[in-house]
Specification:
It contains 6 helices and 11 strands. Strands 1-3-4-8-10 form a 5-stranded mixed beta sheet. A 4-stranded mixed beta sheet has the order 7-6-5-9, with no helix packed on it. Strands 2-11 form a two-stranded antiparallel ribbon.
Length: about 260
């Protein structure tokens, strides 16, 4: 009888856990579907879609990676979304406009026949900057990935390659990278902390120096190498104009642009 009761208790606990997991999954799906039904789609929309599936712990928004490039439309200073996961660091930049795009990976883009800045070329320095901050890790190079997300359902593009994605395709893209598991949980935590330090350093230098003649990927700053530790439950939101910060939930989210 005693063993029977223990078995029933264990079964009950497992059943409750399974039920909670199912409910959590349903809520995630419902949240994503509700977001997809919205008409206004920008980088915040894409961020919330990703947050609904992956949570906010390693998901960053509007991260300044490129130094003194705010005046140049040809160079994108801030990455719209950065996700740090077991597969490395993923840089995602969002195209919000609809229309017909001629979109070679290198070279001039056109939107409805008119010149449009190639987001891959505009964000190339972001990639170099991400490699810079990851160089702090003594274990060697860490993978950096980047892609362009078309947020609008009205966007049509002439060329399809793995780094050009609709909002419906980006989950498979992120899942595929995360599944490679080249980073340990401790390394993921450390990389996220380094990203936070790096972006803060970029902004501080910009405020102190002003615009330079040429935008460049931020150089590797003197940063304290984070200790491998359990994930933090701190959410940091900074604002350059006000210098404010706050906490909210279990996210580390940088908004410094």
């Amino acid at each position: 009888m005693h063993l029977y009761l223990i078995g029933m208790i264990v079964f009950g606990v497992l059943s409750v856990g399974l039920m909670l997991a199912i409910v959590h999954t349903i809520v995630k799906i419902q949240t994503q579907n509700a977001l997809l039904a919205l008409s206004g789609r920008d980088s915040e929309f894409v961020y919330e879609l990703l947050a609904a599936k992956y949570g906010r712990l390693r998901l960053f928004a509007h991260v300044p990676l490129v130094k003194n490039a705010g005046y140049s439309k040809e160079v994108k200073r801030c990455c719209d979304i950065v996700f740090v996961c077991a597969g490395g660091v993923i840089l995602l930049n969002v195209v919000t406009e609809g229309g017909k795009f001629d979109n070679p990976k290198t070279g001039q883009w056109l939107r409805n026949g008119k010149r449009y800045i190639n987001p891959f070329e505009a964000s190339s320095l972001q990639y170099l900057a991400a490699e810079n901050f990851l160089a702090v890790e003594s274990a060697g190079a860490k993978p950096v990935h980047r892609a362009v997300i078309f947020a609008s359902d009205d966007a049509k593009y002439s060329e399809k390659y793995p780094e050009v994605l609709s909002v419906y395709e980006m989950f498979d893209y992120v899942d595929g990278i995360a599944a490679s598991r080249v980073l340990t949980p401790a390394e993921v935590s450390a990389a996220a902390e380094l990203l936070n330090q790096f972006s803060a350093n970029v902004t501080a230098d910009d405020l102190g120096e002003g615009n330079l003649p040429k935008p460049r990927a931020s150089k590797l700053p003197e940063m304290k190498k984070p200790q491998a530790s359990a994930p933090s439950d701190t959410n940091v939101i900074g604002d350059v104009s006000s210098g404010s910060s706050g906490t909210d939930g279990d996210t580390i989210q940088v908004k410094l642009d």
